[in-house]
Specification:
By secondary structure, the protein is mainly β. 0% of the residues lie in helices and 49% in strands.
Length: 105
């Protein structure tokens, strides 16, 4: 059974609500989506920890190593020179790997 719809739908303004991604208490990312600058809140993680960002082609576009941070730390991730799109943020150390989707609008 097929249905044919003859309705025109238009979207004039899309409003994104800033989101805090909270799968656990050790990692929060906000705002998301953002215009390129993200706050990555990191709590109680083992050091050193690598933070990296990959594009949709799995190319690493950003990498840093966190070595000397306090137990609760907000890392300013500036991707404002990158194109609009979807990226994957990855935190990794000897005990875990965490990945989160971030969006540059």
């Amino acid at each position: 059974m097929f249905f044919q719809l003859n309705h025109n739908v238009s979207v004039s303004d899309l409003t994104a609500i800033p989101e805090i991604i909270q799968d656990d208490e050790n990692l929060k990312i906000y705002p998301n989506p953002a215009e390129g600058v993200f706050n990555v809140e990191i709590n109680d993680i083992e050091l050193p920890t690598e933070i990296s960002v990959m594009n949709i082609n799995e190319q690493t576009i950003y990498k840093d190593v966190l070595k000397n941070i306090s137990s609760s730390f907000v890392y300013k991730l500036d991707l404002s020179k990158q194109a609009v799109g979807i990226y994957i943020l990855k935190l990794s150390n000897s005990s875990f790997i965490k990945t989160k989707k971030i969006i540059i609008k």
